[in-house]
Amino acid sequence: MRLFFLSATLAASLLACTTAEARDGLVEPKLTIARGGPQSPRVALTLDACSGAADERILGELFREEIPATIFVTTRWVRRNPQVMKRLQSRPDLFEIEDHGENHVPAVDRPLAVYGIPAAGSPAAVAAEVEGGARAIVAAGSPVPRWFRGATARYSPSAVVEIEKIGYRIAGYSVNGDQGASLIAGMAEKRIAAAKDGDVIIAHVNQPSRSAGEGVARGIHALKEKGVTFVRLDESFVAPTARAAELAAVGQ
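Predicted structure:
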């Protein structure tokens, strides 16, 4: 049975990242899990499904090797990949489905662009992005999500506060495995294969035409060969917050 506890410093880590603002005033929270130790290192693999298709190079590796992962999906991706969603849902022992938003817009509550993507732009639009993504997940037949990761994984500090108030935990990371699926295969493989005990990896599973996906799959395999245990983000949480469940149920 795969059990793990989030690091005791999780709250402090998130707070530190929330207060350490970049020049544009945005934050990029870091997240780690409790280490398993030299004899049983562990990492959390998180994969973003922003829009578009599904990368079977990565999914095939996960299914073949029975590797657990937390997959963050948008409403757009869910609607375009219903059969893939069913496959993921057929293995609830492996895959945890979490919220990546409705339309893949950054969770920033003021007008600006993040990496060229226009942000939500207001508190109401941020809430709609979070809640819309959650409703799509529930409507597709998955449990109420507990975690949220916004597009670009960058946030305005005030949006972080509001997202947590409505019942979701912000999913940061400690290893950027593919730089938004922009890396060549070898670089993505090297980054992921170098993940250390306690790391949370972010990579993308929606770009089958890009080189990065091949490297992501190879990097995951390399960690498996090293004896790393893969864990999901939900395994230390018994249930979602009441507020999150209430919001996700609206409109069903």
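Summary: The chain has one domain: 10-249.
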